[in-house]
Every structure is written in C-alpha cells, then in structure tokens.
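My hope is that you will study the record closing this message with an eye to the fold:
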Amino acid sequence: MKRITIKTMLVASIAMIAVSCNKENTVTNRSTVSADDIASVQAIALVASASGDSIYLVNVCDKRQYKDSIIFSGLPASVATYLSANYAGYTAGKAFAIKDSSGTITGYVATIQFNGNPVGLKFGASGNFVRVLEQREGRDLKGHGWHQGGRFDDRGGSKHDTLALPALPAVITSYFSANYSQDTILRAFKNRDSSVAVISSNNGLFATIFTSTGTFVSRSTLPTKRGKPNSIDVSALPSNAQAYLTTTYPNYVFKHAFKIMNNGTVQGYAVFIDANSTKYAIAFDATGAFVKAVSVR
C-alpha cells in the first residue's frame, strides 16, 4: 500500500488550490448576456456588443427600486455642475432617474465618456454625488467582477500599468528637465490608451499627463496640503479614509498613497486609485476625512 505522508497531502492541497484559483479566473466566452444576469446586479449597458465583452454598470439601484430613462438635460443642475468641475471635457451619455415602488425619485444615474473611457456615477435625489458605479464586462456580471486578460483584470492584484521610473521615455524626462526641473518624480502609470500619468512633488503633488508618444497633455495640482510626501500602503490610511474609498469607488484598485508630513506633523493623505480604467487622486485631511477628488486620466 502506498504510504500517504503529510508532505504528499500538502503538495496535493496546494495543487488543488492552484487549480481552483485558475478555474475561478478562467471564464468561457459567452456570446450573449442573459436578462437574468442583467437583473441580478441591476445592470445598465454602457458599451453595447454582440459578444460577452459588453461593459455594464452594476448595482445602480436595489431590488426595491427601478430605473427610468430620462434625457441627459433632465438631470438636476447640480449634476451638470459636478460633472463639469470633475470631468472637464466629458461627453454626455445615458441618464436615468431611480425611483422607489411609489414612483418617488430617490436618485439619478449619469453615464459619460471621459478621456475615451465610460464612466457611470450615482447621485442622490437632490443631485448630490454619491459614488462612482462599478463596471463589469458582460461575462463577469456574476461572480467577483473580472477575469484574467479582461478589461478590469487589475482587480486581481496585477499592477501591469505601473511604469518603472527608469523606463520613462526620454522625451518625458526631458520635458520635466526643461519645464519642471524642481519636481521630484515619484510614480508613473501607463493608461489603457498608452498615455502616461506622472506623479511628482514640488511643495505639493502634481499629475502630469503625456500622450503615448510623449507629448504633453495637461498638468493638475492635486488636492493636498504642502509637505513631504511619504509613501504608505492603503492599510496605513485612517479607517474612515479606507471606508470612504470602498463605499465611493466600489471594487477600486489601489495604486499608491502618500502621508503628507510637515515638521513631524501629519498634514493629510493623498491616495491614487483606478476605478474602471479612470484614475483618481483623492485627498484626505489629517483625521482621514475626505477633502477632494481629482480625475487624473
């Protein structure tokens, strides 16, 4: 009789876990998305396709509510103000009123195109911003919301968009030398359209965007107090800041965070995330209270 050792059992267990994980992340392409799939997560189609790679907004309302299509200009004026301030140059898309069983409006959903990416946002009944809605590909409407090789596969922990600083194109480093020579480059990311976002510091934090060929696009001052930025992990953020990120950007992907220090005193925090292929810089004060968010790309 073959003797089964603890080592054999351990190896077998590891193999089973590996197979299980691979199976979970390997999704068979589906040619259609069923009505039940859509209803199960209260989804709205953002990018239509005959194949399973269509993009949907999910969890736009709960099961006791329903969405009613409206014209985009029918959204509250405060929604338009918010979009103009936070997504400059956006293109309007679909709009919906969210209603309860009595027909009373409890909120709104606005979809836009921003820098070539779809964005869906939830607003309250008065037009106040609530959250950025999670997106999923059609084949991932059920489950954890992503698959390897898909549009949102960075939710699985891959950081394939992080660009090593020595790998920055010479045209970008030359631009900084000529125009922002006092900046210290901290991090760089390559976006889905191959544009590059560079995070730098100089008595504050900045996000500078370049095209795929290294042409300057824009530079944004990030909403932080002045001080020395110290790199931290998301777990080092105050608990209320962590809760805000989870609630406001469902299934977001953490990119980087800084604790801003001045003379040994915490001034605040700056966090960089990716939510559905759009990057955001979010500022919190020293207590972890939300201050402001900026759409980086």
Remarks:
- Confidence is low (pLDDT under 50) at residues 1-29.
- The two ends are 63 Å apart (CA to CA).
